[in-house]
Structure prediction request, 86 residues.
Amino acid sequence: LRHSALNYTMQQKQYNNHLTERLIALATECDYEFDDEVFTFVTIRDRIRCYFKSYVQSRKKRGVIIGYAARKAGLLAGKKLEKETT
Prediction:
């Protein structure tokens, strides 16, 4: 857990928080409700992070490079990555 926290940048945290806020707003617009006793903001954010972590690992096993690794490898420009995440 400590290792994970050390590799979690402020930019990633802000992005994840913004993504979670957008998800909760979309759910509200579609008349879905999260049980406040079970799904706190942090719980929802962590489930999103776990989903995407699993997704990236699954794609990596299939030989597909996505996200930061793709940008680092020169397969995806930084501006294109930012555009696709907004």
